[in-house]
Amino acid sequence: MGNSTPGADGVRWVFAAGLDDIPEGTVRSATVDGMRLALVKREGEVYALDAVCPHQQGPLDQGELWRGAVECPWHRFRYDPVTGANIYPANVYPDDAPELKRRDLRPAQVFPVEVRGGKIFVGLPAEAPAVRK
Amino acid sequence: MGKVAREVVEKAGINVDELLKKLVRAAAAEFTTFYYYTILRVNAIGFDGEGLKEIIEDARIEDRNHFEALTPRIYELGGSLPRDIRDFAKDSACPDAYLPKNPKDIKEMLHVLVEAERCAIRVYTDICQITFGKDPRTYDLSLGILHEEIEHEAWFSEYLGEGPSGHFRRGVPGESPYAGKFLVVPK
After folding, report:
1. Distance between CA atoms of B73 and B31, rounded to whole angstroms?
2. Do A71 and B122 touch (CB under 8 A)?
3. pLDDT, tens only, B43-98
4. What pTM, to 2 d.p., does this model score?
5. CA-CA distance, B40 to B44, in Å (whole number)?
6. Each residue of A31-51: b (16+ CB within 10 Å) or e?
7. Would you list the domain boundaries of chain A?
8. How does DSSP classify residue A62?
9. Minimal Cβ distance to A92: which of B25, B111, B123
10. CB distance from B107 to chain A under 8 Å?
């Protein structure tokens, strides 16, 4: 995987997987340009997140889609696949502890996705190619 | 470590090192939850809180029992608990169940409790699925704990008005009717 298509918008569109490779309601791993991604299919839409959980670097691509969110298998933190925002434990963390939120609730990085002819393309930054594996 | 105990699990196709990571994280979640539920129980006061206190106490002690039941299995399989408790707590399989900003807001406290139990259900369902048909001892242990976590969720969910739990409360606090057989000193 990883055929790159240059774009005029500062984004490189990189082939990540076939649409049929991601069953509905699942998370699958894909490596594009050396970067591991978690590809998610939810209600027919595909989303792409950095596979590294921002909490403690757990493997989001080995997680599950649970209640509409991507769940990290290590510590069960959950992220909105659309925005990358933490959903759990953000929904139970106390409002008077901003230091906890800063420490634990960083959002997962998300990337734009386009589906063309049954193929999933992920938009990666054109000038800063990902190197993390 | 039980050499053959580990060998048979490996031979059945389980990655024992990965399983051990899951068991240690689960034990950490039980230990930290015991701590946080102690704080929640202390703060469950007033007209609504007093009724909730008893079921927090049951869940709190049963979570401690789960930690005690998991620990021998971790060592049997050749694993160990982290030497530093801070490392242990940091690797908990579930997020910390913090006391809400307003401790008198019982609904908010219930929200914390029910989410913690739902997380635990996810953790033990995962371990059961990995060990089913391959590691009967870890499966049996995880299933016993899963039964209790499911009941805990139902108790708190009932309080939130999500419907009846379908069962009655424990005979004695922290009875552990399903995981109790794994305790060194049975309840």
Report:
1. 15
2. yes
3. 999 988 888 999 999 999 999 999 999 999 999 999 999 999 999 999 999 999 99
4. 0.92
5. 6
6. ebbebbbbbbbbeeebbbbbb
7. 22-111
8. G
9. B111
10. no
**ipTM for the complex?**
0.92
Please state which of the four CATH numbers 3.40.50.1580, 3.90.550.60, 3.30.750.24, 2.102.10.10 is assigned to the domain occupying A22-111.
Answer: 2.102.10.10
Cross-chain CB nearest to B123 (options A76, A96, A100): A76
Nearest-by-Cβ selection for A89 from B93, B95, B101: B95
On whether any CB of chain A is under 8 Å from the CB of B96, the answer is yes
Average pLDDT taken over every residue of chain A: 91
Mean pLDDT calculated for residue range B9-13: 97
| B3-181: CATH superfamily | Ferritin, core subunit, four-helix bundle (1.20.1260.10)
Residue A30 pairs in a beta bridge with: A37
**Residues in chain A whose beta carbon is closer than 8 A to a beta carbon of chain B?**
56, 66, 71, 73-77, 88-89, 91-97, 100, 104
Tokens of B56: 């927090």
Cβ burial, residue B66 (10 Å; 0-12/13-18/19+): buried
Spans of all domains in chain B:
3-181
Tell me the two tokens of residue B117.
């139990």
Which burial class, exposed, middle or buried, applies to A14 when counting CB atoms under 10 A from its CB (0-12, 13-18, 19+)?
Answer: buried
Say whether A88 and B95 touch across the interface (CB within 8 A). Answer: yes
Mutation target to probe the B interface, by most B beta carbons within 10 A, among A75, A79, A96, A101 is: A75
Q: Is the pLDDT of residue B184 over 80?
A: no
